Amino acid sequence: xxxxxxxxxxxxxxxxxxxxxxxxxxxxxxxxxxxxxxxxxxxxxxxxxxxxxxxxxxxxxxxxxxxxxxxxxxxxxxxxxxxxxxxxxxxxxxxxxxxxxxxxxxxxxxxxxxxxxxxxxxxxxxxxxxxxxxxxxxxxxxxxxxxxxxxxxxxxxxxxxxxxxxxxxxxxxxxxxxxxxxxxxxxxxxxxxxxxxxxxxxxxxxxxxxxxxxxxxxxxxxxxxxxxxxxxxxxxxxxxxxxxxxxxx
Amino acid sequence: xxxxxxxxxxxxxxxxxxxxxxxxxxxxxxxxxxxxxxxxxxxxxxxxxxxxxxxxxxxxxxxxxxxxxxxxxxxxxxxxxxxxxxxxxxxxxxxxxxxxxxxxxxxxxxxxxxxxxxxxxxxxxxxxxxxxxxxxxxxxxxxxxxxxxxxxxxxxxxxxxxxxxxxxxxxxxxxxxxxxxxxxxxxxxxxxxxxxxxxxxxxxxxxxxxxxxxxxxxxxxxxxxxxxxxxxxxxxxxxxxxxxxxxxx
Amino acid sequence: xxxxxxxxxxxxxxxxxxxxxxxxxxxxxxxxxxxxxxxxxxxxxxxxxxxxxxxxxxxxxxxxxxxxxxxxxxxxxxxxxxxxxxxxxxxxxxxxxxxxxxxxxxxxxxxxxxxxxxxxxxxxxxxxxxxxxxxxxxxxxxxxxxxxxxxxxxxxxxxxxxxxxxxxxxxxxxxxxxxxxxxxxxxxxxxxxxxxxxxxxxxxxxxxxxxxxxxxxxxxxxxxxxxxxxxxxxxxxxxxxxxxxxxxx
Amino acid sequence: xxxxxxxxxxxxxxxxxxxxxxxxxxxxxxxxxxxxxxxxxxxxxxxxxxxxxxxxxxxxxxxxxxxxxxxxxxxxxxxxxxxxxxxxxxxxxxxxxxxxxxxxxxxxxxxxxxxxxxxxxxxxxxxxxxxxxxxxxxxxxxxxxxxxxxxxxxxxxxxxxxxxxxxxxxxxxxxxxxxxxxxxxxxxxxxxxxxxxxxxxxxxxxxxxxxxxxxxxxxxxxxxxxxxxxxxxxxxxxxxxxxxxxxxx
Lengths: 249, 249, 249, 249
Description:
The structure is a homotetramer. Chain A is of the alpha/beta class. Chain A has a single domain, classed as 3-Layer(aba) Sandwich (Rossmann fold), CATH 3.40.50.10900. The first copy, chain A, has helices spanning 29-41, 95-111, 141-148, 166-176, 195-208, 216-248; strands spanning 4-8, 16-22, 44-51, 57-60, 66-68, 71-78, 81-88, 114-124, 134-138, 152-154, 163-164, 180-188. A nine-stranded mixed β-sheet of chain A has the order 1-3-6-7-2-8-12-9-10, with helices on both faces. A two-stranded antiparallel sheet of chain A has the order 4-5. In chain A, strand 9 (134-138), helix 3 (141-148) and strand 10 form a beta-alpha-beta unit. The longest helix of chain A has 33 residues, at 216-248. The radius of gyration of chain A is 20 Å and the shape is globular.
């Protein structure tokens, strides 16, 4: 096995294709969005990506079947062009590993015709967010102009520290390879998986790529998360009032 | 020396062979089981495995003789087929090292005819266990079906976090190479070396591979561990009652 | 992409050239000095340097444009000879990465004619410094003799622990390649970016390389930092006197 | 520069040669002994060894001259055979680096005729030691037999954890290359550089290799360390009696 190894299930080449990257990260925003996108588009699996830079771990499913941690490349074709979706259980563990994995994946998808990259992510604000904004960063001004129409906010010091990990490197290394890219970050508390932020990000993508996405699954997940948050709040309030009683008693 | 280097003492090729992996880990379950298996089967040493991914350390035996930390490959032949046993003083130290060592070892044993891998391990439950279960994870459904007959439990969310390290990677990377595999994990507190869990795991393997194993050595070790545990309990109780006296006095 | 990759915007070769290295470090002394030097000399960008040893991160500017973290090589030509300036947003993250990046950069600039290296840095003394000294270390005695004329202090146990990171390695690895080098370290508290120390270092360089530098930008930054320091002092004094009041009240 | 790079000042080949390894470690025992050996034998420098696995740092001497951290190989010739001495300011920083550096150095010295390796070290006992023992570990029984005559103690569970770092790997990797080796460890508190332990180790080596060593330098250093220790003791006692006074007063 090479440092980064691809297992292709089918060989595909497109005149042009967009790569949408949804790997684990803040609030699982990107992962939730990628899952929804794959299931909504009924995208087919093109390849598994293995790497020594992923954790040395196998997953075990509910039947007891074990499988290596990997990244997965899915594909949705539409008249000549295509949308590839990269997702997976982990990003590379080290900074060097990040560079190497992203670079190798760009190399492969470029051969398949990818000429545009969208990376997704969460933008942690460390407080509950009612109506999450979508922040963006892009490699060209024309992309910024286009996505501002979809209510994506650019610049003004956000995100302050830049974009770390795969979401950032796919833009930066793609740029070096002549591939335009944009990163869409859904605002999120960062405390919990955030299907609301994921939906907001997907809404931008579906407008930009002219997709027809149903969000009922994400809405359902959002309700579950809301329920958990309310239970947490109640238990916190209860323990605080118990605390108060103790002070009084 | 290569990143992973093999020193073969004899060249062997089999029509089919099983590799049993017993490296250091939780409760030393796998290591204890591998030791017992090697001594019971009077397995012969086939090879030493050295790697820059093992700790930079030599062991010194009771006579003062120094030797490099390594992994060791043993072999027990039975009419055309064979059981190889991999054991050693350490797993690779880094995640990347784990991937690279496991991958190279699979490459070598595949050449020798290995077409089935059993990895052993401990499953830490952080409480004392009277009658340890054996949990399993496998790469095929037919393996699960077969090992359920030997009272191995599969799935239902255990192990939750998957299987880390060599025990997991041998399954996952073996699968990529077309080698079926199963991991057998003996339930253990994780506080101490656990010969009881090791015996339970070995009992499954001896049924599956039709081996005749005597467990008196492991039973003996189990008694010693039990003795140590009782002494620990007594000293804890004594110090607690001393503590109580101090409060009273 | 190689482990260290160069993107040249123009190809240049000089009969002789000096490389001035100003990368992030203590008190941002080197970075501030390099920025000033580049803007004062109106140096042109020669190349971008990318590496897997830099953080896996992109920067986002105020317009929302994303770009990879890199090092940058600038050039100021003057009659046959030249001054190259290396700066950037980060040094390599690991010790091995430092060795590898510095070595590759030396290799490239040597081909362009560099036969002398000046590295800049801060020398942290962990107290406020009114009139910072410039300490030096060099690879030859004649360099020490020359720079002592510009009030650079050498030896006598300073810097005690040697010079870590790129500032040190450019000297040491340059020496192996037959390139003379000197490191100029501006004394600084180390608490804050220090434009005063940066100016002191630049003053030495402008004397040695016969440059005509205007320091008004650094002076302006120094005033801003001074202002911040005074506000900090006041707020500390205020909180101390509040504290005193509380003890009294 | 390669991962490990050699700069030879002279080319040498011997019918047989011993390599004595004295790198930084516990109580600086090995380093002190190597320094003394080099100066007593007036050994000549054969080579500098540089590596990306050493710290990214240059040293600065009292004159302000900077030089890369390295390892150094010295040579003392005596009628056909020779003693090589390896010393330096640092061992490799990572475990992998240790394996790679030791392996490359063995490769080089083997070509020069080295057929025997002595590594030196400190054996930390975490208490003051009046008359330090010398413990040993070797790769052959005949070496143990020989060195027991020089009052070196072998086995019986010491050193318990084996030998870490270069002192261990030179034995272990040398063994793989057919080179016999012994490690001599001077017992030391581990709190301070220990010239007494260094002398004890050197006395064994001078007997074994039939060298005539004068220990006055080490004796002098031992007196200085003793003085420092006494001052420390006094200041501790003084602060304790001050403390007592405070309780009384």
